[in-house]
Amino acid sequence: MRALVYTAPRQVELQDIARPVPVSGESEIAVVAAGICGSDISGFLGHSRRRVPPMVLGHELIGRRPGGQRVVVNPLISCLRCTACLSGAQNLCENWRLLGMDQTTGCFTEFVSIPETQIYEIPDELTDRRAVIAEPLANIVHLFRIAAPHPFFRMGIVGGGTMGSLALLTALRLGVREVLVQDVSDVRLDVVRRMGATLAANVSTEEGRAEACKFAGHGLDLVLDASGNSAARQAAFDLCRPGGLVVLLGMSQERSEIDFVTSIRKEHRVVMSFAYTPVDFERSLALLKAGEVDLTPWTVEMPLEQGQQAFDRMTTAPGATLKMLLRVN
Ligand SMILES: [Zn+2]
Ligand SMILES: [Zn+2]
Q1: Is the pTM of this model over 0.90?
Q2: Ligand 1 center to residue 216 CA distance, Å?
Q3: How many domains does the chain have?
């Protein structure tokens, strides 16, 4: 079967690989379309220790069962037996694995074998472009579930990429009072402004920083770092009010320096959010089915054969593209 194999940093190529054989409890899914995630991009760039070439990346997929029924797959496979799994925190499973990571083959290929428990049938009205957001959106549903914001909260989002944008759209569904999104790209800021951000501030300029600071006032109730670089993490703390909550989601840098003394004096609460559970995934899917969250105006599709161009575009000049979809079948 055809597969887009990550062969070296910044390089993917179409190769022929063996078709997987489903083991007991698994079904074979023919991949229809697959989304490129930020984590695939970090792998592609050679920044991930858990995505080492040669391997097939990809975990966001729409496919078909052998009978033709369209499905979306929850690619985070947990053991269902450890204490974390049994307590409903499958994202903290001792033995979790993700498609397109470590030893698990990803979905930038024609067929995947998936445990039945991970497969959700979807109606035809839910297009591939809409449904492929189920996995990234599940991360956002999870973070709001564990952050549990108070009614009428004011929020800050640092980083207006795919995750920041999904957080904005979800916060608006949750009834957020006002949302600031800060980024350094005018193209992205333009997008989040159209999505409904109260203020979209370009913090690479003095003027933008002043605007964001004025908007935050004594600080925002909930601030999300959707970027993961050091400056962004510190910015999330800086925007947060005394007694407010900082949610750390972005993982681009492993370590960073934070002014802890200032945060201790402000009694900042901190939540770190990782991945999602099956409950979050199902809620995400429900939001997409209802059409309440939609990234399709910012979704671009290319054939699997043009995987190299698709990855190059997302790493060098994504512009307003928030999701890149590879068409497989
Ligand atoms: Zn993803
Ligand atoms: Zn487990």
Answers
A1: yes
A2: 30
A3: 2
